[in-house]
Amino acid sequence: MLSSDAKLVKGYVDADARVDRLRRTNRQRALQAELSQAEADEAREADAMRKRRAAVREEALAEELAAQRAAELRREKLVQLARQQAPELRALESKLQAAYTAKERCNQMEEVKQTKHREKVEEKAWGDQAFRAAQEHERIEVEKRLAQQEKLRAEQEALLQQAAERAAAQRLAQEQYLREKKEVDAVIAKVQEEDYLDHLAKLNKQRATREEHDTFMEKRREILADEAQRERDEEEEIRRFMAEQSKRKESDEKLKREKEAAKAKILEEQTRRINEERRKKEELEELIDDLYTEQAAAKAREAAAAEAERRRRDKELMIAENEKQKRLKEERRRQEQLEEQEFRRKMMEKFAEDDRIDEMNRQKRAAAKAEHSRKVAELLEEKRRIAEQDRLREEEIAAQARAREEEFQQIVEEERQRLLREHAANLDGHLPKGVVQNNNDADIVRGARSGGPNLRAQFAASHGKF
C-alpha cells in the first residue's frame, strides 16, 4: 500500500516536474517569440527610419538640385539679357565687327599687293625675255646683213678683177664682160632690193611705222638711181657702191639707235603708265581703307559717347532718385510726427471728454487717463513698429536691387572679358582703341595672343554679324 502511494506521489511529482518543464519551455518559447517579434519590430522600425531618412535626403537633394538649376537658369537668363541689352557688350561687338572688317580689308590689300608684285615680277621677266629675244633677233639680222654685205663685197671685188682682166682682152671679151657685169649688177640690185624688202617687212612687224616705209622707198629710189649710174659709168658705180655701203652702215646704225630709242621710249611710257595706274589704285585703296577706318572709329566714338551719356544720365537719375527718396522719407517722418501728435491730441481730448461726460471721480479719471495713455502708447508703438517694418522692407528691396545690378554688371564684365579672350588672338594688331580698358584686359589680350584659337566662326554664329 505504501509502495503504491509512493509510486502515486512519485508519479504526481514527476508529472509536476514535467508540467514545470513544459511551462518553462513554453515560457522560454514565448519570451523567445516576444524577443524575435521585438527584434523584427525594431528592424522594421529601423528600416522605416532609414527609408524616411533616405526620402528626406533625396527630397533635400532634389530641392538643392532644383534650387541650383533655378539659379543656373536665372544666371543664363541674366547672361542672355546682358548680351541683348548691355550697351557695353553691343559697343564691344560693334568694335570687334569693325576690327574684323578692317583686318579683312588689310588681308585683301596684302593679297592685292602680293598679286601686283607677282604680276610685276612676271611682267619684268617677260619684258626681259622679250628684250633678250629682240636683241638676239637683231644680232642675227645684223650678222646676216654683214654676211650678205661681205658676200656682195667679195663678188664685187671678183667682178672688178674680172673687169680689169677683160679690159686688157679683146673687144669681144670686153663686150661679153659688160653683158655679164650688167647681169651681175641686176642680180646684185635684185638681191639688195630683196634684202631691203625683207628688212622692211621685219621692221613693219616690229614697229609698223610710216617713217620706216618712207625710208625704205627712199633707199629703193637711191638703189635704182645707183643702178642706172653704174650702167653709165663703172668707176662711178664702184664709187657710188662704196659710198652706199658706208651710207647703209650709217643708216643701219641710225635705225638701230632709233629702234633702241623707240623701245626705251615705249618701255618708259609703259612704265610711267603702269606706275601711274598703280599709284592711282594705291591712292584709291588708301582712301577706301581710311574711309573704313574712319567709319569704324566714328561708330566706336558714337558708341563710347552714347555709353558715357547713358552712364551720366543714370548717375543723375540715381542721384535725383536718392534725393527724392530722402525728401519723401523726411516728409513721411514729419507727417508721421504730425499725425502722431494730432492722434495723441485727439485721443487725449476724446478721453478727457469721455471722462467729463462720465463724471468719474478723480481716482477713476487718473486710472482711465493712465489706461488711455497706455493704449495710446501701444498704438503709437504699433505704428512705429509698422513704420520700421516698412523701412526695413524698403531697405531690403533696395539692397536686392543693388545686388541684382551688381550681379548684372559682373555678368556684363565677364561677357566682355570672354569676348576679348575669344577674339584677341584673331585680331592681333587690329584691336580698336578703347577695347583694352585696364591691366586685366591687357593680360587677357596677351594670354590670347600666346595661344588663342580661331573663334571667328563661333562669334559669327552666336551673334549673326559676320
Automatic annotation (TrEMBL):
Keywords: Cell projection, Cilium, Coiled coil, Cytoplasm, Cytoskeleton, Flagellum, Meiosis, Nucleus
Pfam families: TPH
Domain Trichohyalin-plectin-homology: from-to ranges: 83-433
Tagged with keyword Iron: no
Gene Ontology BP annotations: meiotic cell cycle
Coiled-coil stretches noted in the UniProt entry, renumbered to this chain: 132-194
GO annotation, cellular component aspect: nucleus
Subcellular location: Cytoplasm, Cytoskeleton, Flagellum axoneme; Nucleus
Main location: cytoplasm
Top-level taxon of origin: Eukaryota
PANTHER family for this protein: MEIOSIS-SPECIFIC NUCLEAR STRUCTURAL PROTEIN 1
Reported function: Microtubule inner protein (MIP) part of the dynein-decorated doublet microtubules (DMTs) in cilia axoneme, which is required for motile cilia beating. May play a role in the control of meiotic division and germ cell differentiation through regulation of pairing and recombination during meiosis. Required for sperm flagella assembly. May play a role in the assembly and function of the outer dynein arm-docking complex (ODA-DC). ODA-DC mediates outer dynein arms (ODA) binding onto the axonemal doublet microtubules.
Family the UniProt entry places it in: Belongs to the MNS1 family.
Name of the protein in question: Meiosis-specific nuclear structural protein 1
Protein's organism: Neobodo designis (Flagellated protozoan)
